[in-house]
Design goal:
mainly alpha, 2 domains
Length: 138
């Protein structure tokens, strides 16, 4: 790896880490697009790398921070919910990765973009505005 590549990878990781700790995102929303566009990774390669980064040791510090602060605020994180979500995530991750590897790179990029767009659209509340606008027309 060249020095330039190492610095670029560190910057991408730092940015993803900050966003992950700040709002609970990083892998899919930051790492995957950054690896595809800045390092010319394939969509499959970027998704696999992102999943590799999000393993236990990286996430534990941010989780512990949230855990202790939520507990202090009287809204503790429920370990039963984490356990059930983890089971579903584990099974879903396995089948999702198997499915993704059967989809060509360009189609996978489009699916990824649609999911990001839809998520942003919903989180900004634009879906409700659109429905309200449509109802006003009719």
């Amino acid at each position: 790896m060249s020095t330039h590549e190492i610095i670029l990878i560190l910057i991408i990781g730092l940015f993803a880490g900050i966003l992950s700790g700040l709002v609970g995102v990083g892998g899919g929303i930051v790492l995957v697009p950054a690896l595809v566009y800045f390092l010319s990774y394939t969509q499959h390669q970027a998704q696999g790398t992102s999943l590799g980064v999000l393993t236990f040791p990286v996430v534990i510090i941010a989780f512990l921070t949230y855990y202790t602060d939520c507990k202090k605020m009287g809204v503790p994180i429920d370990f039963k919910v984490i356990g059930v979500l983890s089971a579903g995530f584990l099974i879903g991750g396995y089948f999702g990765s198997k499915l993704a590897l059967k989809i060509d790179n360009d189609t996978l990029k489009k699916i990824f973009a649609i999911i990001l767009f839809y998520t942003g659209f919903k989180m900004l509340g634009w879906d409700a505005l659109l429905l309200k606008w449509i109802k006003n027309i009719f």
